[in-house]
Amino acid sequence: MAIMRIKGVVKDYAWGNKDFIPSLLGYEASEKPQAEYWMGTHKSGESTVDGVALSEIIGRRLPFLFKVLAIDSPLSLQCHPNKEEAKRGWAKEEEKRRRGEACSYNDDNEKAEILLALSPVTALRGFRPFEKSVEALKKYIPISYDALLSDKKDIRSLFLSLFALSREDKDKVLSELEENVKASSLPKNEGEYYTVEGLILTVLKKYSGDIGCVFPLIMNILHVKPGEAIYLQPDTIHAYVKGDGIELMTASDNVLRGGLTPKRIDLSELSSILNFGVTENAFVEKRVKGGAVEYPVPSPDFLLSAIADTAYAVPESVDAIILVTEGKAVLSENGESITLKRGETAFVEKGSSATLTVEGKVFMASEAIAQ
Description:
alpha+beta, 9-stranded antiparallel beta sheet, 32% strand, globular
C-alpha cells in the first residue's frame, strides 16, 4: 500500500491549551490541556493505520517526527545533542540503564528541529552577546549582579554561576528580579508577543524559585510570525513560550534540561554539549519548488514543506507524511485516492508516484529532498 490514511497520537502535557488541537482534529475542547499531536513512528507515540502501527506496515522507522504544538505556557529550557554526542552519551550510560537509574540520554540519535508558527509564537533561543546580557542583568538585578556575578567574563561562567548559587542567594536574585520587572513601566506585551518583562513575569509565576527565570535576560527572545519558521540545531538552548505551530524534528527523545522545570537537570552533561557562543540567525529562509514552499535546514533527516491551492507531485525519493490544516486535499496514486479534510493525515511511501491536489493548505514532512 503506497498511500495510506494514518492516525496520530495526542499528548496532554500540562503546558498545552485545551482547544487548538481539538479544533484542528475536529473534536470538542478537552478538559485536559492538549499540547502535542504526534505523527510518525516514534515508539513513544506512533501513528497507526486501522489500529496497526505504521512501522509494522512499512517495516521500518522514519528518521523524522512530525508534530502540532499548542503552547499555552512556557516549556522547560532545553538543549539536544548532536549525533556524536548522543552516541557517546548513550554508550556512557549503558550501566546506569541496566541498573534502572535516571539517565540523560534516551537514544543514540541527535535531535534537531524546526518550528513553523501557525499563530504568533514567542520563543527563547540561544544566548545574547555577553555585553548585552550584562547590560540586562545590571538593569534588573543590579544588587545581585554586583555581589555575585560581576567577576564573570563570559556567558558560560554567568550561566554556571547562577546554577551554583546557594538557595538563599537564588531567592534573593529572584526576589530582586520580580520586584524590578514589576516596577518597570515598559510594556509586558507587543501585540500577541511577550516582551522580556512579560516573559519574566510569566516564568516567575509558573516556576517560582527556579533560577532559570533569570535566563530571558541572557537569551534571545524571538517573535515568530505565522508562516515564519525557526531552526533549532543541536547544542542550542531554547524554550517555546506561547503560540501554536508545526514542529518537525529528528526522531529522537534526547532532551537535556537547563531550567524552568521540576524535572532532573544534569548540569555537567548539559554544559558539555551546550553552545555558549552567539548563535546564527534562527529564521529559516524559505524557497519555492515544484508548487511547494520548502523550509530547508541543515539536517538530512527532515524537510518541512507547505502546499496551498495547487496540484503537487510528491517526490518519489522520500517517505512523507501529509497533514491538512485548511480545506481539503486529494492524494492519488495508480488509480487509488484518499480524500483528506482538515486535521486528517496520510503517509506516502518512498517510491510512490503520488499526486496531491490541494484546495486549502497542507504541510508535508519528509526526509530532505536531494537538489
